[in-house]
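> example.struct
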């Protein structure tokens, strides 16, 4: 499984995710904002605070998505 090397929040609640194997995935998180789990990300400052530990994208201690979820979201988008 590749590891995440970069996350870049973009406009319209998109986020570009770079992996150590050279793959770049752009996620459309807009449809997730209507869920209880991700509704706090409507706050643009929070959305733009995304960081990675190599294995997930984290916004705060409560909101994160794993590499597996990233690929699942990418397939839906």
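> example.seq
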């Amino acid at each position: 499984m590749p590891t995440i090397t970069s996350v870049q929040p973009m406009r319209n609640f998109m986020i570009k995710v770079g992996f150590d194997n050279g793959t770049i995935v752009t996620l459309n998180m807009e449809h997730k904002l209507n869920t209880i789990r991700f509704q706090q990300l409507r706050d643009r400052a929070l959305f733009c605070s995304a960081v990675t530990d190599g294995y997930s994208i984290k916004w705060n201690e409560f909101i994160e998505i794993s590499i597996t979820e990233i690929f699942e979201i990418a397939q839906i988008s």
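> remarks
Helices lie at 44-47, 67-76.
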